[in-house]
Amino acid sequence: MSEQNLPDKDEAAGRAMRAADDTRKHLAQLFSPKATDAGQEVISRVQGMWGSGKPGESGDTSGFEGMRRVISLTGSTEPPFGGWFDDVADRMAELVPGFATRVMVHRGEITFFVDRDKLLELAKHLRDDEALRFEICVSVSGVHYPEQTGHELHAVFHLLSMTYNRRIRLEVEVSEDDPHLPSLVPVYPMANFHERETWDMFGIIFDGHPALTRILMPDDWVGHPQRKDYPLGGIPVEFKGAVVPPADDRRSYNR
Questions:
Q1: Poorest-confidence range of 16-20, 61-65, 78-82, 159-163?
Q2: Which of 58, 86, 140, 206 makes an SS bond possible with 194, Cβ 3.0 to 4.6 Å?
Q3: Radius of gyration (Cα) for the chain, nearest Å?
Q4: Distances (CA, A) of 31 to 88, 102, 106, 121, 178
Q5: For residue 10, is it within any domain?
């Protein structure tokens, strides 16, 4: 069967067929049955530089209220990926088959979108396996894409191999209704404060974290301020002899 004749429901199988042509045989096991091709998926529509973009509600104080932009994802990348990316992906797929929902190579960097049920197992292998040795989780951060229905929240883990001087990114997608994923603190203790900040700002819940409490906002703060649907708002910031008003109270510029 030619690749062109593959039915849509067998897209994951088509990816496996394409990967099987490469000498790294385990690339064929890379993708999960949940694999998706995000293509040029729209993640946001923006008017101006700040604010909601709704007519009369932009809150824009930049002077660029007339600017409109449509922002899309880069899209998926099919194996082979090139260079050491293939060596790493092949070994990851050998150790944890079907862990990736998609992969993106962009501007010389590789991002593996990981099935959250396999995240913890994969992280242990990435740290301990002789061929991988990603010993350090450099950072954990969050992203909120309100228009991605069912997977609005993304947790992003940046990993560094000191042994091989390599960097990769793991990204896990969860929904606003079920924002849970396993904590990587048991594998990378340095992720402790990073996961707390990601929960504080975005509301992503890291199950198994030893103390998932607020780290930037007061303990009694309501909501998660870096979600895109969070009110711009703000509180006055006091300086000696002056007060900077919250963003919503600042003047808007004429177009």
A1: 16-20
A2: 140
A3: 21
A4: 14, 7, 19, 16, 23
A5: yes
Asked whether residue 45 falls in the same domain as residue 142, the answer is no
In a shared domain, residues 179 and 210: yes
Instruction: Take residue 191 and report the two structure tokens written for it.
Output: 């992720």
Show the domain range for 67: 39-72
Is the distance from CB of 112 to CB of 125 less than 8 angstroms?
A: no
Using one digit for the tens of pLDDT, what is the confidence trace for 220-231? 888 999 998 887
- Whether residues 170 and 57 share a domain: the answer is no
How is the chain split among helix, strand and coil, in percent rounded to 5? Answer: 25, 25, 50
Q: Is residue 87 part of a domain?
A: yes
- In the block, tokens 């300086």 appear at 239
What pLDDT was estimated at residue 186? 97
d(CA 156, CA 86): 21
| Structure-token pair, residue 148 | 């991605």
Lookup: tokens for 58:
């932009």
**What sign has the CA pseudo-torsion 124, 126, 129, 133?**
negative
Q: Mark out the alpha helices in the chain (DSSP H runs).
A: 11-20, 84-95, 119-128, 192-202
Q: How many Cβ atoms sit within 10 Å of the Cβ of residue 242?
A: 7
60 and 82 share a domain?
no
Structural domain tally of the chain?
2
Query: pTM for this structure?
Result: 0.78
Tokens of 88: 């790493």
pLDDT in tens, 75-122: 789 999 999 999 999 999 999 999 999 999 999 999 999 999 999 999
Q: Is 156 left (phi over 0), alpha (psi -120 to 50) or beta?
A: beta
Give domain status of residue 153, yes or no.
yes
